[in-house]
Amino acid sequence: MTLAHLPKVLENERAAYFAPWAETHFKDSLRQAHECWVFYCGAELVGHGVLSAVAHEAELLNLCIAPRVQGRGLGAELLSHLLERARARDCDEVFLEVRDSNLPARRLYRRAGFEEIGRRRGYYPGPAGAEDARVLRREL
Ligand SMILES: CC(C)(COP(=O)(O)OP(=O)(O)OC[C@H]1O[C@@H](n2cnc3c(N)ncnc32)[C@H](O)[C@@H]1OP(=O)(O)O)[C@@H](O)C(=O)NCCC(=O)NCCS
What we know:
6 strands, binds coenzyme A, 4 helices
């Protein structure tokens, strides 16, 4: 991902998330040299992912596929690429947080070998008030 991708990234981000990242979140991630990737289907930018890698620990900060092309295996492919990048950066484990009600994402992560290690109460804003996050971990 580069700054030039941000308009399309933000469009997909806003279409996919209840509480989307602002442009500054992506700019901060680029500045901090996080693993920031865009995913193309042909000429179309349809997804993005952001992962931080610090001291042998990675954290998946964002994984997004545009709603119109969800459910076709693209999220699994993008996740697998980000896990490859975490390995390339010498990480031993990856952590992430996922919204309790986000069944597609929870299913995707379970299939990818993530296990729940805890909860954060009321972590996410939601249409029906605050919602818990599940904290997941996977060894690399
Ligand atoms: C989570 C997300 C990245 C998954 O991407 P995707 O391309 O739709 O996922 P895939 O097609 O690779 O499917 C992955 C799994 O989720 C399941 N899935 C996909 N869409 C689903 C839906 N609408 N309902 C239930 N399960 C669904 C698939 O069946 C698949 O499971 P399987 O391999 O056991 O069959 C995508 O839905 C997304 O961007 N969501 C909004 C942003 C978000 O919540 N990101 C995750 C933050 S933690």
